[in-house]
Fold these 2 entries.
Entry 1:
Amino acid sequence: MNYLNNMQRRPRRNRKSEVVRSLVEETSVSVKDLILPLFLVSGTGKKVAVDSMPGIFRYSIDTMLSEIESCLKLGISSFDVFPAYPEELKDAKASESFNPETFYLKALREIKKQFPEVCLMSDVAMDPYSSDGHDGIVKDGKVLNDETLEVLGRMSLAQADAGVDILGPSDMMDGRVGYIRDLLDEHGFTDTSIMSYTAKYASAFYGPFRDALDSAPKFGDKKTYQMDYANSKEALIEADLDMEEGADFLMVKPALSYLDIIKLLSDNYPLPIAAYNVSGEYSMVKAAAERGWLDGERAMLEILTSIKRSGAKIILTYFAKEYAQLGR
Ligand code: PBG
């Protein structure tokens, strides 16, 4: 069949009005697809702006509870809480991560107590608690894999015990999903889910997040554990392992430069795919919009829709509240 020069076929007819366009629209984003990341600090009465992320704050538990309440009213019910720890509480073994009295675990408990209906996600990785700023235990300049699993395991049990619904191992150590799954099951946490950061790339787009948490690595980079952005095949290996090791969700991170990876995993795996629209992807849009260089709202809609179109069911995004406020 030759469609060229065939004016009986006029694709523009399906774009002729708002109503027709919405009839043919294939992809739409619902607030139910979104998880809002939130930054937690210790203390009370705090709501401190993150300079490199306009519109995003570090909350203490009391102000975070009000923020969650206002998000719930807008239809957002899933939250991923990340703690910012002061330097003096960090050590080489991330000991604070499994101290039951630590402000992060207490806050997670408090959130589940006040809002049992929310889906609460946490981050399993050593970096916010590590004096080396790495996601694993460092020895002689190397990040040790198997020694790190033990810490991740203790951290996971402590978070599950605090009532977290979905654990998010974001560390990229080998074997961690299976290790954590076994431990959870042994301790009776068979209902605690795991959203594995399956294909997490060593990315420049995490910059603002590391500012927000003061969690940048103290030396070197994360390239011996996070993936090389030149590669897609190893995403399949990671996904195979996560499937086998019992992950409930597969995540791709970042999202925008990795739409092909989202599509690859969504075409090949039956598990729900999540994409993390990371801090740098958010801040780029905000910075350009502040200068009047692009329309921030339209850019947000295009970005979130394209992430879904590529195959992600779930999007972790700092835009979640702003999107919900549009009431779409
Ligand atoms: C920690 C972690 C990071 C992000 C989520 N969990 C940073 C990193 O790996 O350095 C980044 C999120 C973002 O940029 O929004 N392991």
Note: Residues 77 and 118 are 5 Å apart (CA to CA).
Entry 2:
Amino acid sequence: MSAPAFPTGSILGYPRIGPRRELKKAVESFWAGKTTVDELEATAAELRASTRERLVALGLKADDSSIPEAFSFYDQVLDAAVTVGAIPTRFADLVAEDGTIDLAGYFTIARGAGQNTPAEMTKWFDSNYHYLVPEIGPETDFHLASDRLLRQVAEATTSGYTTRPVIVGPVTFLLLSKPSEGAPEGYQPLDRLDDLLPVYAELLAGLAAVGADWVQLDEPGLVSESIDVPRERVLAATKQAYELLSSVPIRPQIFVAAPYNSLGDALPVLDATAIEAIQLDLVRGSLPVGFSTTKTLVGGVIDGHNIWRGDLAGAFSTLESLLELSPSVAVTTSTSLFHVPHDVQDEPLLADQLKNWLAFADQKVGQVATLASGLIDGKAAIQGELDAASAALDDRHSAVGVRDGAVRERAAALTESDFTRGDYAARLAAQDAALGLPFLPTTTIGSFPQTGDIRKSRAAFAAGRISEDEYREAMRAEIRSVVELQEKIGIDVIVHGEPERNDMVQYFAENLDGFAVTQNGWVQSYGSRCTRPSILWGDVSRPSPITVEWSTYTQTLTPKPVKGMLTGPVTILAWSFVRDDQPLRDTANQVALALRDEIVDLEAAGIGIIQVDEPALRELLPLKKKDQADYLDWSVGSFRLATSGVGEATQIHTHLCYSEFGVVIDAIDKLDADVTSIEAARSKMEVVPDIQSSGFGRGIGPGVYDIHSPRVPSVDEVTQLIELALGSIPERQIWVNPDCGLKTRGYDETVESLTNVITATRAVREAH
Ligand code: GLN
Ligand code: ZN
């Protein structure tokens, strides 16, 4: 019997969190000790079962490996790490005698415990998803430490499905890892490929034994050019890995997926091995030139990263072109669908016209099924669906609000001077005089814990149960208590705590023209955390001031400077689903102009410090070097456009949070913010010397408190971090602040942590 062919229509992955965030709720209730591990396992199994059922209802087949077995309790990279036994030594006691690690142990690596800091978190390619960075050293004892994937495949088989297990491939796994703490200088995780591959081989054999016909190994690491390993080494590792894995005697057929861009020179390398199928991202990436193969080419033509219904006829013709490269072509998504929400039909409040332009995960599965029918039965069989998608696209192009004359005229009239502020030395002097801050000024990044009461007031207001005045008073009460707390702890620059914001992007989207917001459109950001990206569908403008009232109210409560708080244009774009019918540069400038108006209004209302958050600046950086300069030019430009309307004495702050600054260090400088706060605590200030050696001369606040975990940093720990910063940065530049906002934290840990931060700062001030 010949091996089963690759399914003509499939998806790389599906949202894991559940249509009503069932997984989030189950996981958090387990963490809170309210449910047992068995209850959590049962909820997860139910979710997997209903996903399989749903995918079949949407047009995938139950028995042809088209359904990905891509569930995760927290993160797919952590899953891979735990599967291959890559457990950091500080968590060694989580490993049982037989070498396995249980679910509670798995969560502990993600969340930390006691003095054991959790694994570091960083952005997953050019997306807003964060993965946990594996730590690999000479001591890492690779072995099959979890049979979870095998059990999930067996679970599917038992209920009548032949699914396709998905795991991060070995090369990407090592490329995304960092050397463990004790690893020798110059050590690279990729040095351990020889030892890792046998574990993958064993896993493949195990998957065959539980009935998997195909396995999907995700290798997006091969498309990225932002990885610090010479390309020849990446290619050699690819060759070695897939020659070895394809030589496993009894194994599923191997499907290597390369989402997020083109494989480039890794494609012929993969093709030369004995794997059976390769996915190409034909949305971000392009058709390979001068390449042909007898392997199955799986065209990722449905955008897994965005929510537009798009050009289905164009997608089909891309598949037709792919048929010129291989006699065997199948259709899939460009990336896993876990970047998009479940279902457009689950959005009763969205206008029907807009809904007709959109496709969430379920609609995209339908599109894949349609294109698969076209591949099997010919284009004529799906002409009706192709035409309907084209008609929706035409309707979108000509709809009211998609183009606004006044917005376009203003953007067209911009000149260089709209993008520049005065000389920094003059600004510094003016700001010092205006603000009179102490050495090592302290501040927070903006949000304070979003308590149940805040959420309740917001929900009550949204549902019309309380009046606008009652809502405003509830928020003001919250602001008063946050200001009082900051004064009591002794923080120098005060924030209002952002209680009125459901989300740092959605809040602005709700107050700007050109956006729509969803009710159930959650996507996973990391672990159990989800965000609800807004939909930027039309030209953007600001009908009226947004934050001015909150900031000015806050300033009436304290003599200390209050920091106004806005989300920057790049982050608004990155964390929304953005129109794809014009260059991002144009969209970014429209958003920037709306924010510029807000910033000028804040200044006029007496707010002397304004922070414009750009945590997503690094995230949108294109994976291919050739595209990066243009990106950095427009992204930095839009930030400058937003912030250049103010006078010298107004201090512009920005906040960036992720741990890989390398490629954007120059850009951070070009933003020309007066003060930049960055994430640095988890990596123990690793980035600080780099920033310094790049010649960065303005204010910098490397985070001294990792807010991603409930752990309270000790005074000593914070003191050491401040001293580390002082070791490589001139002291007048340094600010002291947490890594990020506090909205996800509880009050007890927040108060304790901030108190420790201030105690440490005072000690360091005295010692210097
Ligand atoms: N000002 C925002 C906050 O404190 C920044 C959040 C972020 O960087 N993600 O919540
Ligand atoms: Zn942040």
Note: The two ends are 77 Å apart (CA to CA).
